[in-house]
Amino acid sequence: MRFIATFQIYDFLDTLVSLTTAFVLGTLIGAERQYRLRTAGLRTNVLVAVSAAAFVDIGMHLSGADGAVRIIAYVVSGIGFLGAGAIMKEGMNVRGLNTAATLWGSAAVGCCAGADLIVQASLLTVFVLAGNTLLRPLVNAIERAPLDVRASEATYQFRLSVDAEALADVRELLVEKLEASHYPVRDVEVVERADDSVEIVATLVSTAVEKGELDVIAAELEQGPGVRHATWDVTAQD
């Protein structure tokens, strides 16, 4: 019957307030995620917030502030593993980073609630919701802005489709023309095709470029013997 001897109504009410706060605030964050059909939706964010609050509350009641600090450190590590599970790589694209970051936010809200920092938990919820909603128009505007290839950090690649027997000569010519135009080559890869042709992919060292110069080089290379097609592309670096 140790429960009867140790039960304190004020401790119980304190825990109730902490868990209720985490539940309500986690619901607000999760509802926005659920509305946008994200992988970690309403229930996941609520469970993360309430669980974090429960762990921190236990630490507070058993060991005071020092116990809560130790528990929070473990919560941060645990949420890191949970967030990693929400991140998926599809080819060159990575999905789920925002979902993982939101789970971190829900856990932080729960930790604040468990530590009786109700106002701070509410304020953090506002910032998490603002980051997921108010910043969306800005993100869309940035993504629609035209890419400045001179100012951006990007990876440039020349791609040549050539006859197999002309591979050696064209590869040497490609490197010579690029380096003569002050575009040093970092790597050259050869990809075999099924139609008796190969693709030469030359990756340039990161540097400022002139789009017109690259177009001229591609046009000159396309006129060479054995070259079927020549082009270049640019991709943003991580």
Question: Which percent range describes the beta-strand content?
Answer: 15-25%
Q: Determine the number of helices (DSSP H or I, runs of at least 4 residues).
A: 8
Oligomer category: single chain
Give the class from helix and strand content and strand pairing: alpha+beta
Number of discrete domains: 2
End-to-end Cα distance, whole Å, is 59 Å
Order of helices and strands: HHHEEHHHEHEEHE
The percent range for helix content is 55-70%
Average of the residue pLDDT scores: 84
| Uncertain ranges | none
Rg measurement, Å = 28 Å
The count of β-strands is 6
* Largest sheet: number of strands, sense, barrel closure: 4 strands, antiparallel
Q: Biggest sheet, strands in spatial order? A: 4-5-3-6
The general outline is elongated
Brief summary of the model shown:
The protein contains 8 helices and 6 strands, in the order H-H-H-E-E-H-H-H-E-H-E-E-H-E. By secondary structure, it is α+β, with helices and mostly antiparallel strands.
